[in-house]
């Protein structure tokens, strides 16, 4: 699958939506850009660094610290 895009005056390109969707890219996602000198080709890969992964984790509802402590004390015995 190939797409054509334009380079802006700032040297930026827009990654087509279909490719962003396939790579799971969202605003502020990090990517790796690699360049092959022999082939004169650039490739883009999604980065699975900690910050990118952390942004995709959603907490349903923060736990009440007192309730969490009570649960912990009921499961674990003190020595």
TrEMBL record:
Keywords in alphabetical order, please: DNA-binding
Question: Does the keyword field hold Cell inner membrane?
Answer: no
Name the domain of life this protein comes from.
Answer: Bacteria
Q: Which PROSITE patterns match?
A: SPOVT_ABRB (PS51740)
Q: Name one GO molecular function term.
A: DNA binding
Q: Where is the SpoVT-AbrB domain?
A: 2-64
Entry-linked SUPFAM superfamilies: AbrB/MazE/MraZ-like (SSF89447)
- Name by which UniProt lists this protein: SpoVT-AbrB domain-containing protein
